[in-house]
User: Fold this.
Amino acid sequence: MPISAVRKAPLARIYPNHEILEAQGHPTFLTFPLTSEPFFFTFRAMGVGMGNSRAIWKHEVDQADKIARDLIDASRIKLGWRILLLPNFIVDYIRFKKSLMLTRKNFLFTKRFAFNAAKQIYGGENRAEQVRFIEIKTTQLLDKERKGYYTEKIRRKQLQEIEQLIDHYLRLLRSNKNNYAEMIRVTYQSRKEYLSFLNVLQKVEQEVIQAAITTMKKGSKQERLNWFGKVEEAFKKARMEEAEKIFLDVS
Assistant:
């Protein structure tokens, strides 16, 4: 598949202020066109008939959406007198919706690679080949990057995160359950074991964040620290709350 399917520079939880970047005309996410060849949705595994795969991906999208909404804060869109100036209100609303979409897609960047690879592996494909495919694609994205958003250090750390996520998704796919909470309970058996996995995942995510803080060329270091700190805390809070609910009645 030609890399021309990718129309904008990549992002994977690595932008401190994507709204400002967008306002300045900087691209801040990968485009997934619906009418041409989509970059992440042409993997052969998307055709594999696995009922629980829908539940897994729905969970990831829903979680990313909730966290993105919490971070962006819809209260920034003031009503009051602005509703009298309808064009101004519409501009604020469109800006909010665009930020929400960008942030959600950014949070799912590594997860898309890992999830599609896991489905292909589950369907019988060779893991080494799938990982190599991801390495090639991320290298191609890096080669096209000219604005300082994406660096080799970030890419290398992302590959480690993707490996962890592939293992996780494969375990869930092999659980033979269609409900996400049941998948987690069957796969990890206890809240302690699940939190142990989440701690490992958080550590590799932190390495991606540190790579972004030290190598990105956009925004100030303080801006990056503030944004990434909020992202990290938001994911940690959401995951802890979810773990409590999943294992609420499990001894």
Summary: The two ends are 49 Å apart (CA to CA). Confidence is low (pLDDT under 50) at residues 1-49.
